[in-house]
Specification:
The chain is α/β, with parallel strands linked by helices. It folds into 2 domains: 98 residues, no CATH class; 208 residues, Rossmann fold (3-Layer(aba) Sandwich), CATH 3.40.50. The chain is built from 10 helices and 13 strands. A hairpin with a 3-residue loop joins strand 6 and strand 7. Helix 1 packs antiparallel against helix 3, helix 4 runs parallel beside helix 9 and helix 6 packs parallel to helix 7. The longest helix is centred in the N-terminal third of the chain and has 23 residues. The two termini are 53 Å apart. About 2% of the residues have low confidence.
């Protein structure tokens, strides 16, 4: 809920009220010629006579200010939205095998693991797909559903941030990951369904080959994008030794041929990301390429608050009138 004014331009009149107050304070009070002014001064006293005389003016100023606020119609607005769109159903398949701990990527100028970069970039991608259902499949030696298709982006982001290297084993079962994601998508009636598979290695385990899984999933009408991550040449790994942590370089074989074939069979496209910027650009490309028209209806509910200014204004007016006819009554 937010606070707004229906006629905010009326609030400019508050400046006129402030100016009127200043002029009233600076104006000399009404006076009459009397030969014994010294005696009158003693009768009036020197304590708070001037401030007391200004009290009706201050009360009137507050009354006028509150009347202006009430005229501007303060409102509490509650906006609800009705989204009418089939959207896109997206399954993200993320490799968490042992090779994802290679530190050939950088974030904020510091070397980090491949998985850390994937978590950052995938998190940004999820935030952009506000109206799409997204699910998450994690794979290594095994493949399992970490999150079913959902619109709960907060849950997805939490699960992505909790991914750890080796949580599904150290080897890579690409075919199993495609099959598991395909099962999640096959019975859905969304207009568009797609799968984004990311890996930095080659399929070396699993009961189904990546090509077989891609053909089966494409027959269900699911488009497949594949992303290969990793730099060129041996990658640095941080290992613990008896002499403390050290960096060693190991070769990680990325099977681009298979990933290209999977993308071709899946009617999608293969991408190669060798650094953080390229990976972010790839997800941006997919985000723009797979947009659907979203129809959103907004409903605004108003709660009028003018009474909260009008009632105090009436009270201040009554106080001013009461003071002028009793305690601060003037001499005609």
């Amino acid at each position: 809920m937010t606070l707004r004014f229906a006629y905010p331009i009326l609030l400019a009149a508050l400046g006129l009220v402030a100016l009127w107050l200043v002029l009233r304070i600076r104006r000399k009070p009404d006076a009459m010629v009397f030969s014994m002014t010294a005696d009158l001064a003693r009768l009036a006293g020197r304590g708070g006579g001037r401030a007391l005389a200004l009290l009706p003016t201050i009360l009137r100023t507050g009354c006028l200010a509150l009347l202006i606020v009430a005229s501007a119609r303060p409102q509490l607005v509650n906006v609800s939205r009705e989204v009418k769109s089939a959207g896109v159903d997206i399954m993200l398949c993320l490799d968490t095998s042992g090779s994802m701990q290679a530190m050939d990527f950088r974030l904020d100028g510091a070397p980090v693991t491949r998985l850390a970069v994937v978590q950052r970039v995938v998190g940004d991608f999820i935030r952009k797909r506000e109206h799409d259902r997204i699910g998450l499949v994690v794979f290594g030696e095994e493949a399992f559903t970490q999150a079913p298709l959902t619109l709960d982006k907060g849950l997805l982001l939490t699960l992505v941030n909790r991914l750890t290297i080796g949580m599904a084993g150290d080897r890579t079962a690409i075919g199993s990951a495609i099959a598991v994601a395909g099962k999640r998508l096959k019975d859905l009636k969304a207009k568009d369904r797609l799968m984004i598979l990311l890996t930095d290695g080659q399929s070396n385990t699993g009961e189904i080959t990546p090509e077989q899984a891609a053909e089966a999933v494409r027959a269900l009408g699911v488009k497949i994008y594949t992303i290969g991550v990793g730099g060129i040449g041996p990658a640095p790994f941080r290992v613990e030794t008896v002499f403390g942590p050290r960096t060693v370089y190991q070769r990680v074989d990325l099977d681009e041929k298979t990933l290209k074939e999977v993308a071709r069979l899946g009617g999608g496209r293969y991408f190669r990301a060798s650094d953080t910027k390229e990976l972010a650009e790839i997800y941006d490309f997919i985000d723009h390429a797979e947009k659907t028209e979203v129809k959103v209806k907004e409903f605004m509910h108003f709660r009028e608050l003018y009474a909260y200014a009008l009632v105090p204004a009436a009270i201040l007016l009554l106080l001013e009138v009461g003071l002028r006819v009793t305690v601060l009554r003037g001499i005609p």
